[in-house]
Amino acid sequence: MILGPPTSPRRTTQDRAIVPMINVVFLLLIFFLMSATLAPPEPLDVTPPTADGAETDPQPGTLHVDASGQLAYSDVRGQDVWGSLARHDGPLPLRVDANYPATDLASLLTDLAELGIIETRLLTVRP
Question: How far apart are CA 126 and CA 49, in angstroms?
Answer without folding.
Answer: 8
